[in-house]
Hints:
This protein is of the alpha+beta class. It has one domain. It has five helices and 15 strands. The chain has a 15-stranded mixed β-sheet that branches. It is globular, with a radius of gyration of 18 Å.
Amino acid sequence: MDQSVLDALNKWPNVPECFGWLALDRRGQWRMRNEESQIQQLPGEIIKHAALQYSIIKNYARDSKGRFFFQNGPQRVFIDLAYTPWIIRIYPDNNRTWLLQTTSGQIIEPIQCLVDQAGQVLIEADFVVKTLSQVVTNSFETQILRGVGLLHDHDLDFFASHATFYQSKTKMLGFLEWANQSIPIVSVHSNDLPELYNFRLKPHEKI
């Protein structure tokens, strides 16, 4: 978290929270959603300004309710999630192998893979997360939390070429060959993910 952001929070601790104006899409792109986008339920305009992208990533956090937000100075801008709090890409590393990295730059190690009812692939892993631990004092702490991220659709061919699937009617679908390990692949329903991994798709909606 930027020190300037923390200083602004201490100076102006009661700035109203903002909902509906910022979203993370299924390709890891931040989107600005003006009033028309919100009314028409449109995805919004992709944010292309590099400095703003960097600021969102650096000041991306969650609260105890599983709501993710961008701490924009003293204002908390809650983020609508198209699917998951992270989007994951597959990249080559320097050792002629491969690594998993979120679109925000965090390298992760897969614990298991999940395939939903639409055939979308997700990765369960431990993520480093900034968490709002004390609302009254605006205190944050860095935690390692078990979470899930959607695999970018550009990497599905790679996944398919390294996966083995069983002819099975159970939740166990097969395994992914990854870094000399066999990572289990299991089935999941998209509706179950927010509860399983404690996140909110629409922060403004009441549970």
